[in-house]
Design goal:
Strands 1, 2, 3, 4, 5, 14, 17, 18 and 19 form a nine-stranded mixed β-sheet that branches. An eight-stranded parallel β-sheet has the order 6-7-8-9-10-11-12-13. A two-stranded antiparallel sheet has the order 15-16. The protein starts with a strand and ends in a 13-residue tail after the last strand. The protein has two domains: 110 residues, Roll (Urease, subunit C, domain 1); 309 residues, Alpha-Beta Barrel (TIM Barrel). It is globular. The chain has 448 residues and is α/β, with parallel strands linked by helices. It is built from 14 helices and 19 strands. The longest helix has 18 residues.
């Protein structure tokens, strides 16, 4: 079978801290050449002239909940990966709190099989830790799996790891990268009981960041970091949400040498507690969206490299579920389709450079998780690419939302930029608001 060749002409290539005009030659799944000017050598080369649009490496989202198996009324690997490629996300790492939970090798491989048959984007999965499955954790091959996910607060089933002795054993025993959700359950429980006494179950949404407070986040994340330092474990703190927590991280070590890293999510960079009045439970996340000052300090830590990665924590629920009263409304929301354009909107507002967006959403996840041949626009790397017209306004509405749940916290927001093309492993999977009927995703591999 003849290898398909694609030539992308007249691109503004965003890669490794610079933007330069040039062409990208793709042969089969891989980038063959990146140069100022490349000519099509044969007539069967597919030429795409992007006319000065910006080409980013495909975004790698290190934290998503695609809800399959068991919660497929909210989303599936097919539906949510389809939305992801429409947003320029070409690779995702999915979390273990599905039903059943991904806490055995057997259940992990079942998810890989689903993704192999249905995913539009490249995929890997986190293995889930519990108080009782250390034996299973030790069977996981770190070359084949993204890492280990521990819920140190806010989880489902039996995935809350709250036994201190077990936690230390896990940290000491595994060579997997450990990613953690940090909120102190005892603090949250106390705060919630006080608010239920005052309001009953219909607690005002504005109380969410008071219940799931700065202190709850800091107690948990500082303990996790202390334990990582004590045991030498490789720790990645998901969705940092407070100014106080940003002081726990350093920018004095190159990312490849850091043992303790941090992530911030789109919603914590975009929203603040001032938005609860209008958005209500639609912006109910754990950890909670907090104050405008917290948001400002997260931006500072992101830009000065104390925070290493931008992700989504994409976690869809049905609109019916989200419209329940406070104590019954689940936390989480869908974000993969709008993450990259939301960050480019911040570029338009002079908050961040395009080069920094590529660093935090493409390069750094690849470095941090040691993902093979992805995250950069380089010869020999997989041709995962997101092409962006940064001056092509559009508005998010019900007709163009691709999430299975059918809603977005960005509904009615007008973005100045849009994704025009997405390539996954050299295959065009998305073009101009249409996801093409081709599932080109592959299992991510790791250079460990």
């Amino acid at each position: 079978m003849k290898v398909k060749t694609v030539l992308i002409k007249n691109a503004k290539i965003v890669n490794e801290g610079r933007i330069f005009e040039g062409d990208i030659l793709i042969e089969g799944e891989f980038i063959k050449e990146v140069a100022d000017s490349i000519s099509a050598k044969t007539s069967d080369v597919v030429v795409i002239d992007v006319e000065g649009s910006y080409v980013f490496p495909g975004v790698i989202d290190d934290q998503v909940h695609f809800r399959e198996p068991g919660l497929t009324h909210k989303g599936t690997i097919a539906s949510e990966s389809k939305a992801a490629v429409a947003g320029g996300i070409t690779s995702f790492i999915e979390m273990p709190n599905t039903s059943p939970q991904t806490t055995t090798i057997e259940k992990l491989e079942e998810k890989f099989e689903i993704a192999a048959n249905t995913s539009y984007a490249n995929y890997s999965f986190m293995f889930g830790g519990t108080n009782t499955n250390l034996d299973e954790i030790l069977k996981v091959d770190s070359k084949n799996v993204a890492g280990l996910k521990l819920f140190l607060g806010s989880s489902t089933g039996d995935m809350l790891v709250d036994n201190t002795e077990v936690l230390e054993n896990i940290f000491k025993s595994t060579d997997l990268l450990i990613s953690v959700h940090c909120e102190d359950e005892a603090t949250i429980k106390q705060n919630l009981e006080a608010h239920i006494q005052k309001y009953g179950n219909d607690i005002p949404m504005a109380c969410h960041p008071i219940i799931r407070s700065e202190e709850a986040c800091y107690i948990s994340s500082s303990k996790a970091i202390e334990l990582a330092k004590k045991t030498g474990a490789r720790l990645h703190v998901f969705h940092v949400s407070t100014a106080k927590e940003t002081k726990l991280f350093t920018n004095k070590i190159p990312l490849k040498d850091k043992k303790i890293t941090a992530e911030v999510c789109i919603h914590h960079l975009w929203f603040s507690d001032e938005d609860y009045e209008k958005k209500g439970t639609l912006i109910k996340w754990n950890p909670a969206v907090k104050t405008a000052n917290d948001r400002e300090e997260l931006w500072k830590a992101l830009l000065d490299d104390r925070i290493d990665v931008i992700a989504t924590d994409h976690a869809p629920h049905t609109l019916e579920e989200k419209q329940n009263i406070y104590t019954d409304a689940p936390s989480g929301g869908p974000l993969v389709q709008h993450a990259l354009v939301a960050m480019i909107e911040a570029y338009h507002k002079d908050k961040i450079s395009l080069e920094k967006i590529a660093e935090k959403m493409c390069h750094n996840p690849a470095i941090l998780f040691q993902i093979e041949k992805r995250g950069y626009i380089k010869p020999g790397y997989y041709a995962d690419l997101a092409i962006v017209d940064i001056n092509s306004p559009w508005t998010v509405n019900k007709d163009n939302i691709l999430y299975k749940c059918g809603w977005s916290p960005f509904e009615n927001v007008s973005f100045k930029s849009r994704i025009t093309h997405t390539f996954v492993n050299g295959t065009l999977v998305y073009k101009n608001f249409k996801v093409l009927n081709v599932k080109a995703g592959k299992r991510l591999t790791f250079d460990r």
